[in-house]
Amino acid sequence: MTTRPAFIFDLDGTLVDSVYEHVLAWQEALNSEGIELAVWRIHRRIGMSGGLFTHQLLRETKLEITPERIERLNHLHAKAYQNFRGMIRPLPGARELLDTLTRAGIPWAIATSGRMETAAQNLAALGVTPETNVVVTRDDVKYAKPDPDLFVAAAARLNAPIIDSVVVGDSIWDLLAAQRCHALGVGLLSGGYGLGELERAGAYRVYDDPADLLYHLDEVGGRR
Amino acid sequence: MTTRPAFIFDLDGTLVDSVYEHVLAWQEALNSEGIELAVWRIHRRIGMSGGLFTHQLLRETKLEITPERIERLNHLHAKAYQNFRGMIRPLPGARELLDTLTRAGIPWAIATSGRMETAAQNLAALGVTPETNVVVTRDDVKYAKPDPDLFVAAAARLNAPIIDSVVVGDSIWDLLAAQRCHALGVGLLSGGYGLGELERAGAYRVYDDPADLLYHLDEVGGRR
Hints:
alpha/beta, globular, homodimer, 6-stranded parallel sheet
């Protein structure tokens, strides 16, 4: 009896090089609302549910939490992120990694805390089409990361048991969510977290980027 | 016999919130030269000597290293960074920390790998004037971080022994340079490195940002 794990990937910072642009887009959105927050603190929250993110910020900055303000912040962020349109590129090895899995018959999916509205341009840069590949976004589940719903939904659509799946992500929210659903979490440094942060959040292994994961695919069950 | 340490601060990411803007400015400069590099890899090199930085990049990307190309990259970076003019703010607690040291009669200086050309707007945001405060820049020394020259020069100008000085920085280059000159390195997370990375580079203590360091100043010899 052997198990051949399915692979479930986060998108921003894991397959596409978009984290720093998201960070500065959030800063611009927050500044427009008169909220000053150091950039590194925004960075450390990228990848978690946008709703949780804005709720936490408003709580910390003691500003009033209204649905209108949260809606406005999300809209300002999406608008600021559009300024980076055309500058977002796949991370080294991302396309090759997905192609390798496809050729080897290993099921894979993408599960992102973002909405299809912002994810679409990144998927296009990656050559992934939601019509032929399994892509789960914020629009498909009630709760995003660090809740495990996105990963559970992705495994279900792959018809693979989540507890035999490998979840690949660059943020601690991916790894915490992976633990919540008993998947194996693999960290990538390409989102700008440090190795120790990812290990403390439960990473089974940590690699530099998709190219480095592809090179070591056999270590995490990606038998070709 | 008691020693009262002098404090030597890095600038970007340590006192002003400018690292992420420098990162994207470098990416823009590199892209203009046709050099594609993942953003997190640029982030991890911020704070080191600009000359070393560009030399390393050109070596890794196997591009020809010419003085003209390095000069052009440095110019493109400075130009792209200018686009963030007016958006750069002091980190929380930075001004209060410097004021507290001044009031307590504890000598302090700023030592940055940047040139005065780019540092000037950050010093202005911080309310520091090179006429009345000790500021050492890339223009004053032969080698920047991770060489210790900047810190050694700053201590000399403070008339303080470098081996009794506390060097405060957000990047591993600050901490490696501090070790090179036997100063005590204190790390701050406000530049976006992880705690483990700073500790591995030799940090004696790590704090969130200048406000957190101010709160714990007695732990590192800042007796008021």
